[in-house]
Amino acid sequence: MEKKLKSHGAWIGKWTFILAATGSAVGLGNIWGFPYKAGTNGGGAFVLIYLLCIVMIGVPIMISEIIIGRRAGNSPINAMKRTALDSNSSSLWRLVGWSGITAGVLILSFYSVIAGICLNYIFIAAFPSEVLTSSDQFGAVIASPLNLLFWHTVFMLLTFLIVSAGVKNGIGRMVKILMPMLGFLLIFMVIYAMFNGAFVRTLEFLFAPDFSSVTAETFLSAMGQAFFSLSLGMGSIMAYGAYMPKDQKVVPTSFTVASLDTLVAMLAGLAIFPIIFVFNLEPNSGPGLVFVSMLSAFNQMQFGQIIGTFFFILLSIAALSSSISLLEPGVAYLSEEGFLSRKYAALAISLFAWSLGIGTALSFNLLSEFNLTPGRNFLDSMDFIANQILLPLGGMMIAIFVGWFMNKELITNEVGYINPIIYKLWRFFIKYIAPISVASIFISQIL
Ligand code: TRP
């Protein structure tokens, strides 16, 4: 007899899943990561390869995660275990869930520190310094351990509060407010940039591919970015899939979420680069792009205080709706097993991630010389272990499981009726294209 697990309840209406999954996907990865990666990788060619990766690897794996999650209705660990057992495979597939939850906690620990800097910047943009340049300002922000820890704590507390309120009351309600607000603010930013920035130059930069600058590295970085941006490989989407209503169509929904995620990344590029170009700032200035370059742009433009404040509110909202999906899989596991109530499970995991985050906060200042793994400080080590080892491994295993091991009837039950050609294409991508491509990122990153 299988043990009865605690049920989490389902989301009402089809928009809640779409908003929650889009909320998870759209985050620092889109608004801070995508523009700077496109900037450092030469623009158009990177964007094109990124789009191919979304369609060929991202969407097929997203469909697979939702199928597993919804069929089981449980956290990723139990969803993998049950689905594997029901397909006459080994219950060891649950290890995919474990590695995902581990990756989620590691990502959450540093995500919260960076998102804390975004919260801090709401106030910095609202009350700009008269004396500091924007790069000195950024330097001052990251030089102070107490400042970073304070904002890291505030951000983690917000994440904890939403997740502990539960699926329907917390996450479901929150994203209904957060996501439309995000869309509204972003479109406002693009319109502003269209009239006040170098818009034509931006269009050329982002959409006219120059293949002379493409290397193997560009390809790998675009694939990694696609993966991270869609929240794949760790069970965020699988956990949310567990709450998706049974009558909602998996394949069209995945396309909707992936399109919205891609749209936001593009809008972020269209909002950021015109301002970068009009002030003659460098598009390839790296991870500091948002914090240093945008702030100096806001400081110079008319109404910059108001627009800048809006911008960092937007970034913090996007980060918050992603961080809750990093916390949810672990919380769902602990609470469905009956180990802890949802509230205490959320408290335990967020406290743990918060403590790990101290290492990241200090890696900007006191511990900047300390290497946790060879050649990498604390932040870079966390990022490396989670994003470059655990996520690709998780995504590849999910693709292999659904492509080669999961019972076909269970799959078709979840997929429901779709065009047979689309179904065959998806099968082909999930069996061959996705595992082989992800394996090659994984191997080349390890080497
Ligand atoms: N996708 C989010 C972003 O772009 C981050 C994120 C949330 C994530 N959940 C995830 C990344 C799961 C990988 C796996 O910022």
Describe it for me?
The chain has 447 residues and is mainly alpha-helical. It has one domain (14-446): Hydantoin permease (Orthogonal Bundle). Helices cover 77% and strands 1% of the residues. The chain contains 18 helices and 2 strands. It has helices at 14-25, 28-40, 44-72, 76-86, 94-126, 134-143, 145-164, 167-196, 199-207, 216-229, 236-241, 250-278, 289-300, 304-336, 342-363, 378-405, 408-415, 420-446; strands at residues 371-373, 376-377. It has a two-stranded antiparallel ribbon. The longest helix is centred in the first third of the chain and has 33 residues, at 94-126. The model has no long low-confidence stretch (mean pLDDT 89). The chain binds tryptophan.
